[in-house]
Amino acid sequence: MSGTPSFLRPSAAGLAAVAGVLFLGWPWLGRSVPEIGPLDPLLAAAPERVETIRLAPGQTFGEILARASLSWEEQNSLLLAFREQANPRRMGVGTAIALRWLVSEGRLRGVDVTLSRDETVRLTKDETGWTSELLVTPVTVDTLYAEGTVEDALWNAVLSNEGLSHLPAPDRAWVVAGLDQVFQWQIDFSRQVRAGDTYRFVVEREVRPDGSMRSGRILVAEYVNSGTPYRAVWFDPNGDGQGTYYDEEGKSVRRAFLTKPIELARISSRFSNARLHPILNTVRAHRGVDFAAPTGTPVMATGDGVVVSAGRQGDLGNLVEIRHPNGWLTRYGHLSRFGPGIRAGARVRQGQIVGYVGMTGLATGPHLHYEMRRRDGTAMDPLAVRLPPGDPVPSQALARWAQESRERLSLLERPPKAPPARMAQGPASPPVPETASRGGR
To answer: Smaller CB count within 10 Å for the chain: N or C?
Structure first.
């Protein structure tokens, strides 16, 4: 050990001392270690008591604060802090307001106001007064695969699909509506479904901690109708979040017009040159298609255009007429009321709500009367018109389309493995911090 510094070399005396300690301590190694018996449970009082109040009709946030024995100055400070996150005048009936009391002092230490399933305003009192922060419900993004066979209706098949049983009923209903929107130009799910039809789809969704879906998008879907397969792949050619669906060859599955202005509606009367009018009891032409639906059901514009008129017109009651760029005119009758901003001269987009189902004019029950007319005024059967297609994948995006469509179509071949959970990102859902604190008084 010539190379070891002298102060690191063990001396004989040191080794002897260690050996002595080990020798003297050896008898204790065989003895049992004393144990402490089980302790009686100690019940500690919760430091905080939470009282939840729901806003009643005609009640204000200020009234609830006054009942909490807050002085006028404190109420004013708390409301000023709340206004940094939300408008107290827009709090709806049933809004949950949680008052958090400090038990030891009997004073209000905080207030939580649940604005929605995704946002809560937390108000906290400190030595300077009241401050506020906006708590955003965190979400994870996952990918969901499902497949099944249709016996009678797509609605029943999806809602009863065992692979989707863990989804809340509203989320399964959203899937049905999504499939109807994707394939509405190829298949009329109200009249063309056949027993034995099959479906497969992959959904990317944002999921809250309670398992409900905040938002979602069908990435790829297949529906086989009477042996004929239809496929649709979501693709965003401009990268702005405003993508659409294309078939395997890159052709748009959209058309210049929707096949119907109401989702999953039942046809109650078809286009006819001689129909017995249910009220007048006379034979007359029926120049449109009637869709039966409950009062208040949203009615969509079937194509882009400009509103020619929106008002009451004879037998059709409340009527909206839209002129489209290709010369077509569409009409929507018996509406209970008009959609937001729908008036003569207003521009509308395909799928925009123009009104709500009603039974104004001559009608025996709530339904929508829908017409399509050519430039010369000739009425055409909306169920028989060959609708022009939408634009295909732009040439400058073909390379990216080839890669992304291949990847998404492959997801249909087998259930995809769940990707690692991550916070929602991207144009479809801008990243939001879990807490966005803004001090206020």
So the answer is: N
The answer for residues whose C-beta is within 8 angstroms of residue 253's C-beta and 6 or more apart is 182, 183, 185, 186, 230, 232, 244, 245, 246, 247, 390
Choice among 11-20, 101-110, 268-277, 401-410 with the minimum mean pLDDT: 11-20
In angstroms, what CA-CA distances link 369 with 109, 246, 262, 295? 58, 30, 11, 13
The string of pLDDT tens digits covering residues 407-438 is 999 999 865 455 544 554 433 333 333 333 33
> Is the CB of residue 352 less than 8 Å from the CB of residue 339?
yes
In a 13 Å sphere around the CA of 427, the CA atoms on its Cβ side amount to 7
What sign results for the dihedral spanned by CA atoms 94, 100, 106, 107?
negative
Q: What is the pLDDT of residues 362-393, one digit of tens each?
A: 888 899 999 999 888 888 888 888 877 778 99
Nearest 10 degrees: CA dihedral of 391, 394, 399, 405?
-30
Intrachain domains 140-254+391-410 and 266-380 with the same fold: no
Q: Which residue has the tokens 């929602």?
A: 424
pLDDT at site 238: 85
d(CA 43, CA 41): 6
Which DSSP symbol is given to 49? E
Q: Which CATH number fits domain 48-136: 3.10.20.30, 1.10.150.130, 3.40.470.10, 3.10.450.350?
A: 3.10.450.350
Closest Cα partner for 369 from 425, 308, 427, 321?
Answer: 321
Lowest mean pLDDT among 105-114, 224-233, 291-300, 396-405: 105-114
Task: Give the C-alpha separation, 438 to 434, whole Å.
Answer: 13
CATH code linked to domain 266-380: 2.70.70.10
Q: Which two tokens stand for residue 290?
A: 């009637």
Model pTM? 0.61
